[in-house]
Design a protein that fits this description.
The complex is a heterodimer of chains A (318) and B (379). Chain A has 318 residues and is an alpha/beta fold. Chain A folds into two domains: 217 residues, 3-Layer(aba) Sandwich (Rossmann fold); 68 residues, Alpha-Beta Plaits (2-Layer Sandwich), CATH 3.30.70. Chain A is built from eleven helices and 13 strands. In chain A, β1 and β2 form a beta hairpin. The longest helix of chain A is centred in the middle third of the chain and has 16 residues. The radius of gyration of chain A is 24 Å and the shape is elongated. Chain B has 379 residues and is of the alpha/beta class. Chain B folds into two domains: 239 residues, no CATH class; 83 residues, 3-Layer(aba) Sandwich (D-Maltodextrin-Binding Protein, domain 2), CATH 3.40.190.10. Chain B has a four-stranded mixed sheet with strand order 2-1-3-4. Classes of the chains: A alpha/beta (318), B alpha/beta (379).
Chain lengths: 318, 379
């Protein structure tokens, strides 16, 4: 099989039963299987400490797994490490850059490590850093620094981009800018693996996601599919009071079109497929039982709801 | 399907036309084997140049030290013996006698009360107390453990004897010598050069590496195809280039400012300096091999540095230390470096004499390098 054929094979990243144990007791990663297609944008979504960073660093060949196997385009890190490094671009969770070098010097330095790098000026231009090309890294804003980090990942002309929390701590505008850069890379045929604890990021960017918690994948699929499958498409949320002003939480399971009912601090959350069927029935039932509805609202279910549904916890809670 | 539709909608919102983004990327020229090494070296030197603190500690500090110490010990007038004459009717006569002696500049005499005289003598303001017992009898009070006090006793007695008419039976003449080659500054400059090679070696190979590890720069580097040996080679090369600058600057300043005279060959000096730079870079790397915090590295480097700073004859000869520990002092790398530099620069000794000292240096350096590479952590 020729080099080009290998690279163009369908599976970009694959791992089987990945485990990482620190000091023989703590399971940072407790058995993860992934199969990421070339050209796909894949997201690992989970709360802090779920094992996302450990997983991605094992896939990047920076950490040795305690057990399990990793293949990038069918190659293993042990035997083809140097070659694989030519094919991937990385943004670590915290990347240090020399403060006293300029943007152009940093990008040029990283370009020099690769056999066939991209033109540095073009990468700087693409990251909208051309006006800052001769500024010291220490003088850049957070968003500019993060774009420089991505520039160092892209300058090697990688086939795969590994991004560990690429937008954490950035303002909304910088985040949108980065999303656009990531999407552009994917449109060129690149494969992206990113970790995030932002649901909106995963929903917008990723073709498929895996939700990770306690070092395991709880579920995988496209964001839309996961939401659809686990939460229905719509959520109807309300509080019901009886004549004495007491909150009533039971008796909503048998309304038409309700997939599941969830109670949260007196709030009722109904997962429904067709709100226009459920809501009239809900209003009728409330009237019949002499209950008053408060804060009635419907909204699109999100990945956050999926996570809460699966773990009983919120993604961002500490 | 749904996600691709979503993406197309998003693209229309973007301000740039779509086809431009779909163009294939422009590639730079293919990189050769050494491009990473050259860029790392260039980056390292650029960073050094932009770090004013580093420039000061490597170049300014040793120069300043040489100039300050050199000035302190240069052109000092001959020592004046300070004498307290205890007040009495005869005291003024003694002072007048001292002033009329052949070398009045050697003595400064003051008349003081007895209490004052003893008090100031105790605090070192005066080197000698003279009491006039009667017109022909003097009592000298001096401290035999203080060299200047002993000197004052001899000088004052001598001057008074001559002033009162002593005839010397032996004819003698004296000549003073402050020629380059035997002054304190001549001893000092090779010592400061050795010390500077130690400081900058331990710092630029040790502290800098730990700092890069702590800031995850090393981790990011090893996530690229960069050859790890290129990184270590670039650090060593930058050290070597700086070493040449340090040697030229310090010795050049010595020659210009202090009329310092170099007897031995520049080639030997550079070779020995290179051995020193290599040794201390190795020790720096060893100290840095797995240290995670720059504060810790700071402490380790000081622990390595301070004993040698004191023992290895930077500012004064280690001959002053007890004979029993001198063989140990000679095994320290800085002692070997200082001794070799002094014997080449001041005495013009050939390289073959330096073999044992070079051996001491290379052993320290070589063993440090081997363990540093074995233990080195990138993350």
């Amino acid at each position: 099989m020729s080099y080009v054929e290998k690279v163009n094979m369908n599976v970009a990243i694959q791992c089987r039963d990945l485990k990482k144990t620190y000091d023989g007791k703590l399971h940072a990663v407790a058995g993860i299987d992934l199969k990421i297609q070339a050209g796909e944008c894949f997201g690992l979504l989970g709360p802090n400490g779920a094992g996302k960073t450990t997983t991605i660093e094992i896939l990047e060949g920076l950490l040795e797994p305690s057990s399990g196997e990793v293949e990038i385009f069918g190659y293993k890190w042990k035997t083809h490490g140097r070659q694989l490094r030519e094919w991937i671009g990385i943004s670590l969770q915290e990347t240090g850059l020399s403060e006293k070098l300029t943007v152009r010097e940093i990008v040029g330095l990283y370009a020099s490590f690769y056999r066939n790098p991209r033109d540095s000026d073009e990468v700087i231009e693409e990251m909208s850093l051309h006006e800052k090309a001769d500024s010291w890294v220490g003088k850049l804003s957070g968003g500019q620094k993060q774009r420089l980090v991505i520039a160092t990942a892209l300058v090697g002309n990688p086939r795969i981009l590994f991004l560990d929390e690429p937008t954490s701590g950035l303002d909304p505008q910088s985040r949108r800018q980065l999303w656009e850069i990531i999407r552009r890379f994917q449109l060129r045929g690149g494969t992206v693996l990113l970790t995030t604890h932002y649901m909106d990021e995963a929903e917008r960017l990723c073709d498929r996601i895996s939700i990770v918690d306690h070092g395991r994948i709880i579920t995988s699929g496209s964001p839309a599919l996961l939401i659809e499958r686990l939460c229905g498409t719509q959520l109807v949320e309300f509080v019901a009071n009886n004549a004495l002003g007491e909150v009533v939480t039971d008796g909503w399971d048998h309304l038409p079109g309700v997939e599941s009912v969830k109670r949260e601090n007196g709030n009722i959350l109904l997962s429904v497929h067709e709100p226009h069927v459920t809501i009239p029935a809900l209003l009728a039932a409330a009237q019949q039982r002499g209950l008053r509805l408060e804060h009635l609202s419907t909204r699109q279910a999100s990945l956050e709801d999926v996570f809460v549904h699966l773990t009983g916890r919120h993604l961002r809670e500490n | 399907m749904e996600t691709t539709i979503k993406k197309q909608i998003e693209i229309i919102e973007l301000d740039k036309p779509v086809p431009e983004r779909l163009l294939p990327v422009r590639l730079a020229a293919q990189n050769g084997r050494w491009s990473g090494y050259w860029h790392l070296l260039k980056a390292r030197l650029t960073e050094l140049r932009r770090e004013p603190g580093v420039v000061f500690w490597i170049f300014g500090f040793p120069l300043l030290m040489a100039v300050a110490l050199g000035m302190a010990f240069r052109n000092k007038p001959p020592d004046v013996s300070r004498v307290a004459v205890i007040a009495s009717p005869e005291a003024e006569r003694i002072v007048a006698l001292l002033n009329s002696a052949p070398h009045p500049e050697l003595v400064r005499a003051d008349v003081l009360s007895e209490i004052d005289a003893h008090h100031r003598f105790q605090f070192g303001k005066y080197d000698l107390v003279v009491r006039v017992k009667d017109s022909d009898t003097l009592v000298y009070e001096y401290d035999p453990t203080r060299p200047e006090s002993v000197l004052a006793h001899v000088v004052v007695d001598d001057q008074l004897e001559i002033a009162t008419g002593r005839k010397d039976r032996l004819q003698s003449s004296t000549r003073t010598s402050t020629e380059p080659g035997s002054r304190y500054i001549d001893f000092l400059i090779p010592g400061i050069l050795g010390m500077n090679l130690m400081i900058s070696g331990l710092w630029s190979a040790g502290f800098v590496v730990v700092d890069m590890r702590q800031r995850k720069i090393l981790k990011r580097y090893v996530a690229t195809p960069m050859r790890r040996s290129d990184f270590l080679l670039a650090i060593s090369t930058s050290r070597l280039l700086l070493m040449v600058l340090e040697v030229l600057l310090l010795l050049g300043c010595g020659i210009l400012v202090f009329h310092f005279h170099i007897v031995g060959s520049w080639a030997s000096i550079l070779l020995v300096s290179m051995a020193g730079a290599f040794t201390f870079a190795g020790m720096g790397l060893l100290a840095a091999s797995r240290t995670q915090k720059s504060e810790t590295a700071n402490g380790i480097i000081n622990i390595v540095m301070i004993p040698m700073w004191m023992l290895s004859g930077v500012f004064f000869s280690y001959e002053h230390f007890p004979g029993a520990i001198q063989p140990l002092i000679k095994l320290l790398p800085l002692t070997a470096l200082n001794d070799a530099l002094r014997s080449i620069i001041l005495e013009g000794a050939p390289l073959r004499v330096q073999v044992p000292r070079l051996l001491v240096l290379c052993l320290w350096g070589g063993i440090s390098f081997i363990f540093a590479l074995r233990w080195f952590r990138w993350t």
